Amino acid sequence: MFYADLTPYGYWNEGEEFTDVADGMRYVAFQPVYERLNIGWLEAGLSWTSGQASQDFGRRLLAVVDAQHVNVMLGLHECDLCPTPLPDTHPWYMPRPGELRASVGTGEIRVPGSPGIVFAAPSLIGHYVVDHGYLPPRQFIEAVLAFDPYGAWRPRYPGIRFPWIPEDAVLRHVDDE
């Protein structure tokens, strides 16, 4: 699914759902009051910027991908930039031989930018950067470097690291429904 970088986000308009990464059993869902901008929604055959990202950016981006689970879907999205599909015998969560990150994703990440702006990217963005040489816009790189994905979380939302969750958002358990 392709969306040009820095365009308004429109993939999932049912709000935001952040999953607790500590146990995966709790989540908080809310309608965002910030503007979401697309980053890294790449597709084979369509142009995107390539280049060498700094190692600091790559490490921090992978930390964000590991620390956040946003709008996790039930299906898998396999990278179509990779030259061949994964064989059925290859575990989807393992990197391909010679690659650093798994080439299949299930959700998204959010990175706070300037006030009122959040960058919305697929969880595959880590794979796109470290394995395909995708170079995101400077604004996103700066936001990733400024964001601490392992900083303290708010006591009200344990296991969820994102600073702009509204005060009236409700933490739920998967068994609540």
Can you describe this structure?
This protein has 177 residues and is an alpha+beta fold. 17% of the residues lie in helices and 18% in strands. Strand 1 and strand 2 form a beta hairpin. Helix 1 runs antiparallel to helix 2. The model has no long low-confidence stretch (mean pLDDT 91).
Quick rundown:
The chain has helices at 55-67, 125-132, 138-146, and strands at 16-19, 26-30, 35-38, 77-78, 104-105, 108-112, 117-122, 170-173. The protein has 177 residues and is of the alpha+beta class.
Q: How is the secondary structure organized here?
A:
Blueprint: E1 16-19, E2 26-30, E3 35-38, H1 55-67, E4 77-78, E5 104-105, E6 108-112, E7 117-122, H2 125-132, H3 138-146, E8 170-173
Parallel strand pairs: 3-7
Antiparallel strand pairs: 1-2, 2-8, 4-5, 6-7
Helix pairs in contact: 1-2, 1-3
